Amino acid sequence: MSKPKLSSVVLILMIPIGFVALWALAWWSAHQMTGDRIAATTRPITPWIRPANSAASSTPTSAKTLYLVYCAQCHGETGDGNGTRQLDRPARSFRDGGFSFGNTPEAIFRTISNGIGGTPMPGYADSISVSDRRKLAEYVRTLGPETIDVAASDMIMHVTDRPRIVRGHLPSLASDRPDHPRGLLLGTMDGLTLQYAADDVRLLAVRQGDFVERTDWSGRGGSELKPLGRVIDLLDDGINGPLLDLGDGTTLQLTGTVAGERHPILRFKAACSDATGAILGSEWCEATTHPVGTGYRRILQLSRSGGCPDPKLRLPGAHHPLVDVISDTDEGDRRRTWFVRRRPDGLYVITGVSGSIVESNRNGEDLVIQVPDEGHADIELTTIIRPTWNETAATALRGVIR
Amino acid sequence: MNMILLTLLLSINPAVESDYWTVEHFTNPEGQILEIGGMDFLPDGRLVVSTRRGQIWTIENALADDPAEAVFRLAAEGLHEGLGLKVVGEDVLLVQRGELSRLRDLDRDGEFETIDTITQDWGMTGNYHEFAFGLPEDAEGNVYVSLNVGFWDPEWWHGRSRAPWRGWVLQIAPDGTVTPFASGLRSPCGLGIDSEGRLLATDNQGDWMAACPIVHVREGGFYGHPASLQWTDDYTDGRVPSTTIPPGRTPDPPAIWIPYAWSRSTGNLEPDVTDGAFGPFEDQLLVAELTNGMLLRAQLEEVDGITQGACFKFMQRLGSACRVTFAPDGSLIVGFTNRGWGGYPPGHGIARVRFNGVEPMEIDRVSIQPDGFDLEFTKPLDAEVSPDSLTMTAYDYNWWWDYGSPEQNVHDIPVTSTSLSPDKRTLKVTAPIEAGWCIRMRLDDIVAEDGTPLLHDEFGYTINRVPGAGPPSKAVAREVRPPDGRDDRESGWLRLTWGSVFEQWNSDGWKLGEAELDPEDRTRFTTREGNSAVVNAQPMSSDFVSRGRFGDMHMRLKFMLPEGSTTGVRILDGPTIELGDNSHLPGYPSTSGALILGDGTRIEPATNAYQGAGMWHELHAVVRVPRFDANGNLVEEAVVESISIDGTALHANVPLGPVDATRSPIAIIGSRGPVGIADIRVKPLDEAWPAGDGWTSLQPEGDLAPWTSDSSAWSSADGVLRCDGTGAITIERLLPADVSVRASLRINEGGRAELSLGDQIVSINNSSNAHPRTGSIDDAVVRTELLAPENRFVLRIDRAIEGDLVRITAHVNNVLVNEWSSPREDIGDDSHVLRLKSVEYGTKVELDGIQWRPIEP
């Protein structure tokens, strides 16, 4: 008789935490990159509210209770993905065994902790204790089929416990765009796939979802890979060029990749015809959330090797009409300038630039990066795509200007 | 008969490879497919392999006594194929399809997380065949990469170089600088550097590559495939090397043309520098061969600065060997891959070959002399060798655009004398040899002084030069007038199993499907749904007998046997070409290609061209029927002009003894052992358009007359009737009831036309689907796709009234392919009308002859 009593007490204690979690979910679901339900009527201060009663999590809680409180609204009580909350896209069904971001307890723990950028799945690092997150990860795993160990011979490659990098022939991204026999896919642990041309290190598209099917393994080989994520940003539009401009005859070349602990890192060399030296760069990328929406963030590090002019940053999409420029926002970690452009498809691309930039043009056309002789320059490029741009959104962005 | 042969073979007690070398296959990690593309050893002793699937595996304890102790670890994945690998220091260099990379494990966790791009400095169009291979390192630290040409039209295998350096070997300096090094290659799957420092490449036979060669790659060299010349100064004006016309540049001769019977897809090669740990063949090359699943041995020498040499079988039935590398302990690691190309099982994985220390009796080296060859053996011979126990055959090849070249101008060379050196190790063979030929020599009854029988009794030698004889008058692969085109290749052939497999055959108990050796019981096939083979699935299957009866003919078919099976192909109602597998017996004494005459006389094939159980082989036979005079007296005996398996000549001009049949069916024997058969074709060699004997021409002269037409699609010029579009031409009141009509014609791909005798329509349709095909008569439909489109053929229709029936038969190229009969009244009122009609939009028909004659009842 006493057991049900205890758990009902626990449940009551958990309500505030659950409430916060629900609120966070609501916020997330309102900020979809697909964006047809943007509801930024009030500016959220921050989604990462520490629960008022964090002491509650110190009470031992069963994994199932944790699941019911935090997860079931979206993922369903049985983990079938049919929760009570309405989402733009159905939540993951654990019963089917598909975990975009890994099925090891460690990978699920990480997903619970960090969330999945660009989806309604929030991170719970600040709201659930480490031990409870571990418990939850184990529990979520039991909802699926036996285990989903990813074998090296499986045709589908998932990003599980570490970032993944795949080289191969990439299919064309649109009917008028070429295929890329030398292609590169970087899979991040937060569910993004960065699709690059490997011969000039151009970012072609950003995808979200599962990683890649290695279709080149069948037949006599040599066929195209099949990236599985949906395209959330198409950069291969026939106009976007290399990211850096050093002057006449600028070339970017891949110099390598590193499957780092947390990020897939790409390395490149930028050179031009009238300099003996070069700019050496590295880049990684992750999903990001921002008060005006969700998107992705490219982190660049540039260093100098020999004599070479400072490179200009060529923002992808800079040829689209500029709608708004919001300068010098300060989001705590760094200051950014935001360029809002309207693409031909009607969506708005909001590009935030921060780092070692000497800005010489307010339109974002001549962003010169100061690369020091020693050490390196840091650049961050944040891209958010949303269906509308209005005063409310601008206010939301300006709201963080100090 | 067979038992006697087997007893004989067993009594010799031949040596077998496993007496000297032991093969152990590693067990792949569970569920994993390791299609090996590159292999080397890390400084810490781990074996590191790259795979076609873009994975890197490291293997600890690869050299342990028990292969089960090997520990596999996935060390990298997601690479764009890995078909060449070299360990340099602690780094792993890897050729990916699009780049040369350096793989490093900087955090020492066993995974290569850091991949540096050394260079991407070669072109790719995205064509599937643009593989990149490697990766030997020379003394200066340069590495070498070889690049395939892409495959495009007109046939799927035509090599073209549409991006820089396809068909080249590239030299890549340690700083990543790429130097295009040599050209003229097609599918150079294997590179290696021998102990003399020579850079060697193997290639795979196909267009402009007569067979699989081993090439000594020199800077600036050109080895025969013209596509790669695109990137030379000769083609800077926008021209593209022709896919059919020789490029006007003489290829540098390959050092060795490997006999096609031995190698169909050659992998890489590595010199034996194990100081005896791997056996007696110091400094010689071990060569991987994929399709036939074997290892070959090659030995080079230089004459007048030109490299050439000998090749030998080393070890057979190993698996689809694509890569070999020597381990630090002197054992040989073999990597298997057969993806998509077929090959001897297993098609993936790794094996280790160890020498067990017992010296084999082998031909160690062959060195060319002005007057023959010196053959050095690994052990002293027991006695002098008679010239009679040596068979020396010479052949050359066509250098042309067609896919590979059969051995050409095959002839025996008399061995004039033999003499043994005082130490009994060197046999001097004197014979009239000439440069520009490949030699195949077989040695019978050779035994070492200690009684050890010779392990491999055959070798091949490519003579680019004879010492002291100066430059040769011709190359082994001679430039020849190329075949005219696809039409010519297909011309005259009847494809008797295309489309509808059984329709042109009488058979019972035969089944269509995919056939493979049963891994549980290699003496039988497993079959599953498919359409690649016809198999005598039931124990009491009938013979598989053609409905058509053939006179002089060229016949070809593909066959595959399970272990121990013997069957045959019967021609001329008697003589049989035996198809026999004995690969379960020591020495693999195949009987495929033996000819058994009607009286039981057995003629053994000149050599063994048979590869083994579960492998597809192509059999060709050219047969001439007997000729009799008007009184029935024999004028010319029946003869087998040639029999070959996989391009290796087995018989030439064998009289067949007493044969009565002047037309006879082909029969595959169904009641003996199991056999898989595919793609049976016959090219009748008798006159397709015999003159005289009452034929009346209906060719128009000038306008269409005697034909009438309401269609502008038909026209006539230079005696040729043409139709472009749809419409009919007709001649009224011409045909008697018993009549023969023949037409010599061509129809385009997708075209469909009809020749009508009164109400009865005979179809002309070689390629259009869902319609009755050529030879169909009224409702007697032919579904077999007998003819390739665009090829000229002769269609003959005979109509005869026989009692109450009308009987119509259709012959294509003189072979009966269909017959139809019906009550006499079905001939209708218009029986005297002859009509030609094109019925499909886009049809093009050309008739250069159309004639009729009455048939005497």
Summarize the entry for a quick read:
The complex is a heterodimer of chains A (402) and B (857). Chain A has helices at 2-29, 63-70, 72-75, 105-114, 130-143, 391-398; strands at 156-157, 164-170, 180-187, 192-197, 202-208, 212-213, 226-227, 230-234, 244-245, 251-259, 264-271, 278-290, 293-305, 312-313, 322-330, 335-342, 348-355, 357-359, 367-369, 377-386.
Description:
The complex is a heterodimer of chains A (402) and B (857). By secondary structure, chain A is α+β, with helices and mostly antiparallel strands. Chain A folds into 2 domains: 142 residues, Orthogonal Bundle (Cytochrome Bc1 Complex, Chain D, domain 2); 235 residues. Helix content of chain A is 18%, strand content 32%. Chain A contains 6 helices and 20 strands. In chain A, the strands form 4 sheets. An 8-stranded antiparallel β-sheet of chain A has the order 10-11-12-13-20-17-16-15, with helices on one face. Chain A has a 5-stranded antiparallel β-sheet with strand order 2-3-4-5-8, with no helix packed on it. A 4-stranded antiparallel β-sheet of chain A has the order 9-14-19-18, with no helix packed on it. In chain A, strand 3 and strand 4 form a beta hairpin. In chain A, helix 2 packs across helix 5. The radius of gyration of chain A is 23 Å and the shape is globular. Chain A starts with a helix and ends with a helix. In chain A, 47% of the residues are buried. Chain B is mainly β and 857 residues long. Chain B folds into 4 domains: 339 residues, TolB, C-terminal domain (Neuraminidase); 117 residues, Immunoglobulin-like; 197 residues, Sandwich (Jelly Rolls), CATH 2.60.120.560; 159 residues, Jelly Rolls (Sandwich), CATH 2.60.120.200. Chain B contains 2 helices and 65 strands. In chain B, strands 20, 21, 22, 23, 29, 30, 33, 34 and 35 form a 9-stranded mixed β-sheet that branches. In chain B, strands 36, 38, 39, 41, 46, 49, 50 and 52 form an 8-stranded antiparallel β-sheet that branches. In chain B, strands 53, 55, 56, 58, 61, 62, 63 and 65 form an 8-stranded antiparallel β-sheet that branches. In chain B, strand 27 and strand 28 form a beta hairpin. The two termini of chain B are 49 Å apart. The N terminus of chain B is likely disordered. Chains A and B meet through strand 2, strand 3 and strand 10 of A and strand 9 of B.
